[in-house]
Design a protein that fits this description.
By secondary structure, this protein is an alpha+beta fold. The protein has four helices and 17 strands. Helix 2 crosses helix 4. It is elongated.
Length: 267
């Protein structure tokens, strides 16, 4: 854990948890969301061209705190995952896959406390449930019936396996400014977007740059990269420069809209 994250965690324990127990306040979804975001930042991996962040989060809560969310736990987990995706996109982080969140009851966690295990998972070969996590809190307990991971030096270099790149196929629907709809299939070579005639998708839109962006496969996922366009790119309303795309995502370049209709591995 980076020094600043460790200091932040110390003050959380010093003030937040005791006051919550004293006044019997109920945990709020926003508190869980903020803790997931901190775990994402604490476990990020920075390389020359991108910042990779975890995409699997197990949130450990005291049984009473988890019960306080009632029958909303499944819906809450989806909302937290969507929030993590938005956070990653806003901060221009790279993800191997869409985030997933699991809320887990853990009697070893004290009331009003939140422990988050942040993991890197390859969508093409999901890690086993009992694989050793990359944890945002070195003191986080393991799930009942499992052996606790060995303590590690937080300043030591940590090594993880980078998934092998694959080239997924995808189908997208393009809506031009005049309302005309065109469909494209994205193969291993990707799909370049822009007004210039040498693009795969030639945009009929004056707000689109000559070479605006590119959709391509990376590590088994579909990734959009803005190529330094003048007017920028947005995915589901959020400005982006590089982001993992999923089915249903809406990419906007100028007044042109590109919707991912389907995605899967090549034959």
């Amino acid at each position: 854990m980076p020094p600043l994250a460790a200091i932040e965690r110390f003050f959380e324990r010093l003030f937040e948890r005791p006051s919550a127990r004293l006044f019997r306040t109920r945990l709020q979804p926003l508190q869980l969301q903020r803790r997931i975001e901190r775990a994402m930042e604490a476990e990020r991996r920075v390389s020359l061209d991108r910042t990779l962040v975890p995409n699997r989060f197990i949130v450990h809560l005291h049984p009473d705190d988890l019960a306080g969310f009632g029958d909303r736990t499944e819906t809450l987990a989806v909302e937290l995952a969507n929030g993590a995706l938005t956070f990653a996109r806003t901060h221009h982080f790279s993800l191997a896959d869409r985030p997933r969140v699991e809320l887990r009851s853990d009697a070893r966690v004290q009331r009003a406390d939140i422990r988050v295990d942040a993991r890197f998972a390859d969508p093409s070969s999901e890690r086993p449930a009992d694989a050793e996590p990359s944890t945002s809190d070195a003191a986080a307990p393991s799930a009942p019936g499992r052996h606790a991971p060995p303590a590690t030096d937080p300043t030591a270099t940590r090594v993880f396996t980078v998934p092998q790149p694959t080239s997924p196929r995808a189908a997208v629907a393009v809506t031009d400014p005049d309302g005309r709809v065109r469909r494209f299939t994205i193969g291993g070579g990707g799909l370049t977007i822009g007004r210039a005639e040498d693009n795969d998708l030639v945009a009929r839109d004056s707000r689109v740059s000559r070479h605006h962006g590119r959709i391509a496969g990376r590590r088994g996922t579909l990734v959009y990269l803005d190529l330094g366009s003048t007017n920028g790119s947005r995915v589901n309303g959020e400005p982006v420069t590089e982001v993992v795309l999923g089915v249903g995502d809406r990419l906007e370049v100028g007044a042109t809209t590109i919707v991912v209709e389907g995605a899967g591995a090549n034959d």
